[in-house]
Write a structure and sequence with these properties.
Layout: E1 4-8, E2 14-19, H1 25-31, E3 42-46, E4 49-53, H2 65-74, E5 76-77
Antiparallel strand pairs: 1-2, 2-3, 3-4, 4-5
Length: 79
């Protein structure tokens, strides 16, 4: 997974996590969601859906899976 990270939440669901500022046009088209250039978010993707939280923490890559799950719980669902 290029430019992203995988983690498994406490319920066993695998999430792909991305920094929106690192998106390519192909990712934006796949998600059918325009990336936010001014205020990039941290994006979460799984079989349960897609979520985002603003702003993307600069240290998100070094956060523990538990810390990422904490962010996930307060992230907004994308419709």
């Amino acid at each position: 997974m290029e430019n992203g990270r995988l983690f498994v939440d406490s319920t066993g669901i695998e999430w792909e996590v991305y920094d929106e500022s690192q998106w390519t046009i192909a990712w934006a088209l796949d998600w059918e969601y325009p990336p936010q250039a001014e205020n990039p978010a941290l994006l979460f993707d799984s079989v349960l859906g897609r979520r985002r939280i603003f702003p993307c923490p600069s240290n998100w890559r070094t956060l523990s899976d538990r810390e990422l799950e904490g962010l996930l719980k307060v992230a907004t669902a994308l419709i």
